[in-house]
Design a protein that fits this description.
The two termini are 37 Å apart. Helix content is 8%, strand content 19%. Among the domains are: 1-149, Leucine-rich repeat, LRR (right-handed beta-alpha superhelix) (Alpha-Beta Horseshoe), CATH 3.80.10.10; 605-672. The mean pLDDT is 90. The strands form 7 sheets. It has a 28-stranded parallel sheet, with no helix packed on it. Strand 29 (411-413), helix 5 and strand 30 form a beta-alpha-beta unit. Keywords: Leucine-rich repeat, Repeat.
């Protein structure tokens, strides 16, 4: 790292075109003479140095790109820039420049920079901009003024002379309003960033007649109102982000001739305070929207006129985390192009019969975390495009026959309800296409042998946390395609030895907390993940599981790790068992282990080379066992050559010193 350059250091390299001097400690000494004579230099990078000025004769006239960001500049080096008539790219961000005014720039001082296309002045201290500060930059395409202290944009700062400007970044300043005169006559503008300011209101015609504008970011402001006609004649607008503001009312009257049906808008109004939705008299002039995000607001009622105003092209409607309590009949019928509807975390109690009639293209319907206690007999009937239906975390006691008729569901989630039985009749209506069925955390007590006959293509079945005790031996016989099965947290008394003969392709199996005293035979050659935690096992599984990669045995009564070889096992959890001693041979049959958890063990002996056979071990979770001592633990961990992540409980200062002494250079993450 240098703080100066000898004046003759580039002699003999006069033909150099690019010079990078970033991240040194350069100050203004002899550098001007060192660089100025490089007559063919096109690109100069001196970012992240200690320059407090750039002398007038410091830069060669041939420069096309200059980066002086991350220095100690308190004014734009206009004198030096006058020579750079070919300059197209200038980065002066991350300095301490306080203003850009006509006085600072001496009127037409930047006129030689008529070819400048890219200008970054972000992360400075600019509070004041003169109305003609940028007037001579007639070729400007990109302007970044983010992270400054601007409170307003002077009228005329940008105008018809900036006809090439494509991207304008004004985010994270102190702008208080977006006024009509601020941004006019910018025919090429495509991206406008105003995020993170203090804008309270978007005035009428604030953004008007910008024919190529595609993206507007107004997120993280204090906008409480959009005036009527705030956005006018923006036919190319494809993304408008208003999330995290203070809007209480959202009216379509703010939009006039915005977007096109062939390129509809993505509109984000989430995380506001919207309680009312208004059409604003837009009948006959709909807003063309592809995705509308109104999640995390206070909306209690959906109005049909508003939905008509946005429904012509609407594909995705996000209404999660609101206060919607009911869906009236035919309310959603105008949304004929809708593909996804999200209503999770609302106050829905009931839905009208055929509330979704007319939503012929709807593929994903998310109704989780509501208060729905019952469904109508034809609630989703005839929705031929529906593929995903999430009704989890409601109060359903049954799914009536007919509710799913005419659907082709692939994923149905009914977990965390109050079902007392598997809704066999309803499943039969949509069963042929069903691939994933969630029934966890209900009150199901019994499965008969024919319950899954209508779902032969099922790949994922979750029955965890119910009241199942008896399972017929042949209950899973129709499920030859099953890949994932969760039966944990049930009081099972089934003959597990016979239960899995019909699902040889199973890859994930959950049998946690089912009261097992011995691991059952598992004729599952493709099994990859097995959870047997929370049982009373005294011996680890002994069967042949050649493909097993993840084994959870926490909270059992094991006295030792598995002694059978698991050649592909990469994750093992033995926490909360009765293991008292570990040695070099404890894990010798697990050559590919990458993650090992040994929390809450009554260990009395742990040999320092216990982890040495685990050449691939990356993650280790355990405790700073008092019987082992800080130095002993440090030696144990030092024997694991690939260890990168460590989680320890009861982490003492002595332990900290031992770990840092022996293995801190290798461990990237540690928690206590």
């Amino acid at each position: 790292m240098r703080d100066s350059l000898p004046s003759q250091c580039f002699n003999g390299t006069l033909a150099v075109r690019e010079l990078r001097l970033d991240q040194n400690a350069l100050r203004v000494r002899k550098e001007p003479a060192a660089v100025a004579n490089l007559s063919r230099l096109h690109s100069l990078f001196v970012a992240n140095n200690r320059l407090s000025e750039v002398p007038d004769d410091a830069l060669p006239a041939s420069l096309r790109a200059l980066s002086i960001s991350g220095n100690d500049l308190h004014f734009l080096p206009v004198g030096a820039l006058r020579r750079c008539t070919q300059l197209a790219h200038l980065n002066a961000g991350y300095n301490g420049i306080p203003r850009l005014t006509d006085g600072d720039l001496e009127g037409p001082a930047l006129r030689p920079l008529e070819k400048l296309r890219w200008l970054a002045l972000d992360n400075n201290d600019i509070r004041v901009l003169s109305h003609d500060a940028l007037r001579t930059l007639i070729s400007l395409e990109f302007l970044n003024l983010e992270d400054n202290l601007l409170s307003e944009l002077p009228p005329g700062l940008l105008g018809e002379e900036h006809s090439n400007l494509r991207e304008l970044r004004l985010g994270y300043n102190m702008l208080r309003a977006l006024r009509p005169e601020a941004l006019r006559r910018l025919p090429a503008l495509r991206t406008l960033v105003l995020a993170g300011n203090h804008i309270h209101m978007v005035e009428s015609s604030a953004l008007e007649d910008l024919p190529r504008l595609e993206t507007v970011l107004l997120r993280d402001n204090k906008v409480s109102k959009l005036q009527p006609r705030s956005f006018v004649d923006l036919p190319s607008l494809s993304s408008l982000d208003l999330h995290r503001n203070r809007l209480q009312v959202f009216s379509l009257s703010a939009f006039v001739n915005v977007s096109r049906p062939e390129a509809p808008l993505t509109l984000n109004v989430s995380w506001n305070r919207v309680a009312e939705l208004y059409s604003g008299g837009t009948e006959g002039a709909p807003l063309y929207v592809h995705t509308l995000d109104l999640s995390h607001n206070f909306i209690a009622e959906l109005k049909s006129k508003f939905l008509v105003g946005v429904g012509a092209t609407l594909r995705r409607l996000h209404l999660a985390h609101n206060r919607v309590s009911r869906l009236d009949g035919l309310l959603l019928g105008t949304l004929q192009s809708l593909e996804l509807l999200s209503l999770e975390h609302n106050d829905l109690v009931s839905m009208a019969p055929r509330a979704f009639q007319g939503c012929d293209m709807l593929q994903v319907l998310l109704l989780a975390h509501n208060h729905v206690a019952s469904l109508q007999p034809e609630q989703f009937a005839g929705m031929a495009s529906l593929r995903v239906l999430d009704l989890s975390h409601n109060r359903l006691r049954a799914v009536p026959p007919g509710a799913l008729s005419g659907t082709a569901l692939e994923r149905l989630d009914l977990s965390n309800n109050a079902l007392g039985a598997v809704p066999s009749a309803a499943l039969a209506e949509a069963g042929a296409s069903l691939r994933s069925l969630g029934l966890a955390s209900n009150a199901i007590q019994h499965l008969d042998g024919t319950v899954f006959l209508a779902t032969p293509g099922l790949c994922h079945l979750d029955l965890a946390d119910n009241r199942l005790s008896f399972l017929p031996d042949n209950v899973f016989s129709p499920l030859g395609a099953l890949l994932s099965l969760r039966l944990g947290r049930n009081p099972l008394r089934a003959n597990l030895a016979e239960l899995f003969h019909y699902v040889h392709g199973l890859r994930e199996l959950g049998l946690d907390a089912v009261g097992l005293r011995a691991a059952p035979p598992l004729p599952l050659p493709s099994l990859v993940a097995l959870n047997l935690s929370g049982n009373s096992l005294q011996v680890a599984p002994q069967g042949e599981l050649p493909a097993l990669r993840s084994l959870h045995l926490a909270a059992n009564m094991l006295g030792a790790p598995p002694d059978k070889p698991f050649p592909l096992l990469s994750t093992l959890d033995l926490s909360n068992n009765r293991i008292r001693a570990l040695g070099r041979t404890s894990f010798s049959e697990l050559p590919r282990l990458r993650s090992l958890a040994l929390r809450s063990l009554p260990l009395e002996v742990m040999e320092t080379d216990t982890l040495q056979p685990l050449r691939l071990l990356r993650v280790f979770e355990a405790e700073a066992w008092t019987g082992l001592g800080p130095q002993g633990l440090g030696k144990v961990l030092a024997s694991a050559p690939s260890l990168k992540s460590l989680c320890l409980r009861d982490y003492s200062p002595q332990c900290n010193h031992a770990l840092h002494t022996r293995c801190c250079r290798r461990i990237r993450g540690s928690t206590g």
